[in-house]
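Let us work through a complete example step by step.
Step 1: write down the sequence.
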Amino acid sequence: MNKKQKLKVCVLGSTYPRNKEDHQVPWLRETVNQLKGRGHDVVVVASSFKGSGHHTIDGVPVLRFRYAPAFIESLTHDEGAPAKSKSILGKLLAMVYILSGILHMFYWSWKYSFDVINVHWPFPHGLFTILPRAFFGAKVVLTAHGAGMAMARRSKYINWILGFILSHSDSITCNSSHTKKEIARLTGSSARVIPYGTTVEGKKAADPFSKAKTRILFSGRHIQRKGVDYLIEALSLVLGQKKDVELVITGHGDRTQEWKQIVTNLKLEDKVRFEGFVSNERLAELYQSSDIYCLPAIHDDNSDTEGLGVVLIEALLHARPVVASGVGGIVDVIKHQETGILVKEKSSNDLAHALIYLIENPLRAKELGKAGERFVKENFNWASILDNLEGVLLRANEQKDVFGTEIQMAGAV
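Step 2: predict the structure and record it as tokens.
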């Protein structure tokens, strides 16, 4: 192929920014924009949220499918569907959500003639592509994240459906080695690891611990698997030895009030600051002014954990030393005592010891931050990420001969 083919790509998932200021899934928004920048015709399909309709972001059409009256149409976005689908109402909404998604994708595939549908969160969204693949010949590339694997571990029914979805795709990608292993273990399918980069620009910052007060930073959704309650408890232990330490927490979610109550109970109100959702510009400032980044992730009550941890990439691009739990896809970014420090999950003591170690060894902390910066620049840059993703999409589209029948292509996954 002398000239790169221009594809009609549908990016399908549950969540996408609702306006230009929405901070939902920034890595997916950047992926879409990068594909568009490479000359492909991209359309996003995502669920509606409280009655939201079709709109355009960054010049990309976003098609929203409705599945309930506006006042209860909140299954997706913010805390995410797994946490919202446990009630009877949530389960009913989930069934209507799937039916509506199937019907809308069939119609939009007929209307727009997509070459490739890139499905994020294969369960349940892979079900939406069965008819477009069968009737219109659309190629299907599934992109798996950790949450879907956690659901499959808990339910034989979901596991069977996920295996069916994966077997009826043209290629499978995933965000980390952890997710790849889970896909193989649960379904026997193979996947290609294509991680994500950051949308926060790495800027030169002062060396850590160059100020009188040490600042620890956490940024992310306030959900159970982030494990911030253990970090708050660890801070109280750190303060027993190091007085001039503060914790800054950005983001919001269903655990926000619980974490604030822990802060109150431990009398840490003057040591912990909640900033809520912040812009990329403000987040970059916080990375620059912080001395340690901490991601105390855990396996939550649903056995879900971090699929990758893009915030770690952001922190390392600012050469910040990192303390994180050794779970999920975190280990793809943080190599113990090479690009950061890994600790046991759900251990406030281990977190505290690691934080104190970095505070007491600022030169070592600086070395870890610099090594991490080099590592993520080499392995998590958008140019190589998009080269890999674009290659998968193009190969999937090429898996047919001149009569439209499928053929096997080496390296398709």
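Step 3: interpret the result. Residues 401-413 have pLDDT under 50 and may be disordered.
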